[in-house]
Amino acid sequence: MKPQNPSALHILAFVYLTFSHVTDGELSHEEIDTIARVLHGWLPDATSDQISRVIVDTAAWVNGIASDEERLAQAETYAHLMKEQMSEKQRSAVLVNLIELARADGKITATEEQFIGHLTRTLGLA
Questions:
Q1: Rounded to an integer, what is the distance from CA 55 to the centroid of its chain?
Q2: Which ranges does the record mark as transmembrane (predicted)?
Q3: CA dihedral angle for residue 75, residue 47, residue 91, residue 4, rounded to 10 degrees
Q4: I need a surface site. Which of 15, 20, 51, 114 has the fewest CB within 10 A?
């Protein structure tokens, strides 16, 4: 279920969790740890418990969406929002985070590369 007032951190977590789940069909412990680390990078003053809560809430939100197509459509909507509201440096950081996530489980799939390529264009970085 979508949080009532999703924060910017929830939106980032949504994109990262969708990327991790949809592109290779699984969410490894390494990917979850990487998501926690990169989210903490966006909000360094947050406690580990706060970051964990954002991940748990957002995972429930992602899992509450019926299909991967709907998850991807929502992630793309958020990417357009990021393009409008984030600096180029921040948008580039989102892509770096996605590359870190792709590498987290030790294998980068063609689907992960396609997702990153699509988001690069959507974020206006291509």
A1: 10
A2: none
A3: 40
A4: 114
